[in-house]
Amino acid sequence: MGELGQLDPAKLYDVLVVGGGNAALCAAIAARRDGASVLVVEGASKFYRGGNTRHTRNIRCAHDTATETLTGPYSEEELFQDLLRMTGGKTDEPLARHMIRESKEVLVWLTEQGVRYQPSLGGTLTLGRTNAFFLGGGRAMLNELYRTAERIGIDVVYDTPVTALEIDGGVFKSATALHKGVPHKLRAKNLVAAAGGFESNIEWLKEYWGEAAENFLIRGTPNNRGTVLRMLLDAGVQETGDPTQCHAVAIDARAPKYDGGIITRLDCVVFGIVVNKNAVRFYDEGEDIWPKRYAIWGRLVAQQPDQIAYIVFDASSLELFMPSLFPPITADTIEELAGKLGLDPEVLGKTVSEFNSGVRPGNFNHADLDGCRTEGVTPPKSNWARKIEKAPFYAYPVRPGITFTYLGVRVNLEARMIMNDGSPAENMFAAGEIMAGNVLTKGYAAGIGMTIGSVSGRMAGRGAAKNAHR
């Protein structure tokens, strides 16, 4: 692969891909396989390349039959209905249906690029039928894509953030990128923007969340600051998506500010109760199975005082979920646990007692909606309600962990950007998180981000290559 200092500064590429994650690499590979010359510019270092892809585990795609690693079929219509439920019916339906249809090819296509899969993880995720798990996780998947890129002749440079875009009337002219402290002008016939959202830009988040954003933890790298997104919007590309919406989950409050990744996520909300700093519950912990509802908890915690909450459970649930990197806080009594958490022991004791009194008998089944519920308790718990009574007692402190934001650029069925006047851009395409808000208006389901990235990446890459050869 080329280093920027070794490149001919006068070289005109067919396609410039800005970004270095799954969407960017899928775009680059698709364009290159269609005969285009491609340069990938990644703002992060080689070690941190790939943005959020580094922390992923699986991809949710439609498929007609079971495979060696998928336990059954997952139809296009079922995936679309799942998308409607998570977004409350608000999505670009033609684009969503098109991407879901395209997703059926992606699993095989990724395999052709060297990506391998493994059987799904056990425990509470219940994703064996719907989601394909990457062998070795997201970083291994990403490494395979980079190996393929190198093998087929794609130029890649790292530590090279794009600082300016020259765009005139919906036509991309050039990009300015900083490499080793020196600005370079990069020319290409087409641009594919795949540089992620603005989740690492706390000041931008504050525009919508206020000071609460100071308490947000960023699950990915510090690099996703929305610089390219802002430049595109300022250049007249039409925006889409709600800036207050994002993929935000409850993660261990002891996680680092950046790059904690998936090992700080907590999958145990459904097995206990969640209380805020006032030691009271604030939402139904058993509303739906975890893969479809886990991403609501980041926003819920963000709306609580000081953006902090605590998952409280007992010994009967300790081994039913994948633990965090950090051990749970433990005590022999609820009151002692409250003291360790800095909560009012009397109030937490009352909260647990009232919850326990509302639990109704049922057949507990952690793998499915079991109807084990509470009655006469506000808020209710709709499934997996069991009394918290078996010592020792445990708790995890949690904060909002943002994965990516949903504000982005509008695109059409070719992944081509749409300008403010409604016309398609002549030579600008978008892929991944920077355009996810077209499909994801709110909510999330496990693996859907990788689906959007892979599919839109292929679409953008093929479209850019075709554009270059007109």
UniProtKB/TrEMBL annotation:
Keyword line: FAD, Flavoprotein, Oxidoreductase
Species annotation: Undibacter mobilis
Pfam families named in the record: FAD_binding_2
Gene name as annotated: cobZ
Keyword Transcription: no
FAD-dependent oxidoreductase 2 FAD-binding domain segment(s): 14-439
Molecular function terms, GO-annotated: oxidoreductase activity
Cofactor(s) this protein requires: FAD
Keyword Flavoprotein on entry: yes
The protein's name: FAD-dependent tricarballylate dehydrogenase TcuA
